[in-house]
């Protein structure tokens, strides 16, 4: 199971940190990531990180978002630090573990 947390309302220019803990048989050896889906739009990649720590970011996330991993209480956790948030960042954010494990989604709402 994937349990995501950290979403909520924030004003433009503010910050939020999303976290997603994996339990059960979900492995992090293939990497992890975050996607987002705004209302009426397709789900898109925000950031990914490999087990070796190599990161990849969508253009809109570069310089503002930071993906990281940790192990807490034997659970692999992937986090997304989001700074300088903009109203266009409003979306449901999903954590992802390959090949096809998805968190339940956490809503981020950025007001202007």
Q: Write down the oligomeric state.
A: single chain
Low-confidence stretches: none
Could you tell me the number of beta strands?
Answer: 11
- Measured between the Cα atoms of the first and last residue, the distance is 34 Å
**Percent of residues in beta strands?**
over 45%
In angstroms, what is the radius of gyration? Answer: 13 Å
Helix content: under 10%
Description:
The model has no long low-confidence stretch (mean pLDDT 93). It is globular and about 40 Å long. The protein has strands spanning 2-5, 8-11, 16-22, 32-37, 44-49, 55-57, 65-72, 75-82, 91-97, 101-102, 106-111. The protein is an all-beta fold and 112 residues long. Strands 2, 4, 5, 6, 9, 10 and 11 form a seven-stranded mixed beta sheet that branches. A hairpin with a 5-residue loop joins strand 5 and strand 6 (55-57).
Topology:
Layout: E1 2-5, E2 8-11, E3 16-22, E4 32-37, E5 44-49, E6 55-57, E7 65-72, E8 75-82, E9 91-97, E10 101-102, E11 106-111
Parallel strand pairs: 2-11
Antiparallel strand pairs: 1-3, 3-8, 4-5, 4-9, 5-6, 7-8, 9-10, 9-11
